[in-house]
């Protein structure tokens, strides 16, 4: 099927109606990377884990960048649309509930998840963004319908500065998302506290 054009791993949820985690790996990762994380974050959830199609010196990514932290915005828009269409097609193909898709992204994966929120918010029910940056600033600002978003970033991240995180949170809030910001005493790599906090956040009742 042409629309399922991403290499991906799919695992159905343990029970019908459970959410599906859309796992989005970091630069140089693949569709296997975040599987252990998913099992810890929300046991029993379904998993849809695509591999980024862009290759940067052999490393898979979800969109092109011109240099560290400088994104090719045209490519980002195209890849965001392509990923959104893939999720929609996968929901139909695998028969999971497309209204209960939760993005879990790390670094480059968190950035395309942020872009999905800003450009195709209907795709995501909630999002967990680890070490995320501002992907792009759409004009006019879209209206994200109260989507809960957890941003879990590191205070001493050499790639994502504190101001960058603050800009991202302000942008998502201005668009209407319900953002919870969690700071970790960490750099760009995930630490155990990221998982603990994200698990708690995912287990909390959703705002009605
Ligand atoms: C990365 O290494 O992936 C960057 O920090 C984030 C990005 O390029 O999207």
Mind describing the biggest β-sheet? 7 strands, mixed
Structural class: alpha/beta
Bound molecules: D-malate
What letter string, H or E per element, gives the SSE order?
Answer: EEHEEEEEHEHEEHEH
Secondary structure: helix percent: 25-40%
- The span between the termini is 36 Å
Fraction of residues in β-strands: 15-25%
Poorly predicted regions are none
Number of helices: 5
Number of strands: 11
Apparent shape: globular
The pLDDT mean sits at 96
Strands across the major sheet, in which order?
1-3-2-8-9-10-11
Radius of gyration: 15 Å
3D architecture notes:
32% of the residues lie in helices and 24% in strands. The strands form 3 sheets. A 7-stranded mixed β-sheet has the order 1-3-2-8-9-10-11, with helices on both faces. The mean pLDDT is 96. The relative contact order is 0.14. It has helices at residues 35-41, 73-94, 108-119, 162-174, 192-203; strands at residues 8-11, 20-24, 46-50, 54-56, 59-61, 65-67, 70-71, 101-106, 126-130, 148-154, 178-184. α2 (73-94) packs across α3. With 208 residues, the protein is an alpha/beta fold. It is built from 5 helices and 11 strands, in the order ββαβββββαβαββαβα. The structure holds D-malate. Residues 26-27, 65, 107-108, 111, 159 line the site of D-malate.
